[in-house]
Input
Amino acid sequence: MSGPSLRVRFAPSPTGFLHVGGARTALFNWLLARHTGGTFILRIEDTDRERSNDELTAAIVDGMTWLGLDWDEGPFFQAEGLKRHQRDALALLEAGAAYRCFCTPEDVDRRRVVAGIREGAFRYDRLCHRLDPDVSLRRAADGDAFTVRFLVPRGVTRWADVVHGPIEFDNAEIEDLILLRSDGTPTYNLAVVSDDVEMHITHVIRGADHISNTPKQIMLYQALGRPLPVFAHVPLIHGEDGKRLSKRHGATAIDQYQTMGILPEAMVNFLALLGWSSGTDQEIFSVQELIERFTIEQVNKKAAIFDVQKLLWLNGHYLRSRPAADIVPLVLEHMRVAGNAPPASAGAEHDRFLAVIGTLQARSRTTEEIATQAVAYFDHALQYDPAAVRKHWKGAETADRLARLREVWTALDRWDDDALEAGLRGLAETLGVKAGMLIHPLRVALIGAADGPGIFDIVRLLGRERVLHRVEQAIGTMRSTAGGTVP
Output
């Protein structure tokens, strides 16, 4: 499966946003094209005009651009091939491989009921195929509405799927499929085959949910006298409960992960591992490594599991590898959307802002997490986490200890880690307590939370004035609350 003649396509329908499964399919096609020096084509399958719209098309394109999946040709729009689709259907009609069907859906349903066959199990009984050809022509000329149905031949349709191995379908189990609707628009199977033939697609890589469409399409290729592409059906993606991934599992659209602070390189790495294996224990791959090592033959049959925690772990790795300056615009956008943009003074404090981001990114998994934590390092009204307060603020005794610490630190000649730590530990020894009895309530006083960077990193990032002010503020809060605790 190699060579510059290889041509693959990603063909999303603009009836929804770019979802995880579609993005994974696009990635596999893109990686194969880049690995072999072939051509990657983007085709928008917009023949469902009622559900397709420009906004969703733009969202799909934006999602692919964010992931870095550049295309060599396109985007092409399936609706623009209408005349070709009709021409191919009429060619099959003239060759006797298809026929006009004047039956309405209501006609077919009535015959199903009479036959006593449950809905979904009834296959069209070919009533219109038995019409005299002259009668069929005359009815069409008289303006009777009709569809064009493909005449499924007898026998078995089989192919060697790159992922699943040999697959075959008994043609007797396949209904004569409609190629053109009564309004002259093509159905999915005809449009896909016609487009793939026109674009000289050599390899069709798509989800395993399309396996049932493949025998129908193979029969159309054969009836049109066209060579078959190679088929590879990649596994479906399931949630951690083993069921097919859906909205009940959380975010399924790529743009949602972008919004929550996932980096594109992390998402690409994660998507590549959904069904593909390098044959080693390696899990972190650069894009170039994926291009060099990717083959469809290494894609598994078994459904892939979408593990959000693994995605967050990968994202944390890539987040830590980025320079803080690269992260700043992403963090600022999160803060702006949340209404927590730093005050104007942050511009003058650019170095301190970079230091805050650099410190937080070392322990965060998304840029959104960084943005949420970064708020505490600027002059917004500090919000105390109730759980942290209950755990670490133990009434008047805590307030008195922090007041003593504030006195010690106020008297320091030097405001550096060594002097600050010596002062804190010296006070703890004087009070006969462990240093943590000061550090934990102090962290809550400074950033409002029990978890965060090292206490002296926090102190350094906030600066002397903010630290002393916040400690004083926390002492006042504790002492002004009945019983000496904050509920």
Q: What stands out?
A: The first helix runs from residue 20 to 36. The chain is about 50% helix and 10% strand. Residues 482-487 have pLDDT under 50 and may be disordered.
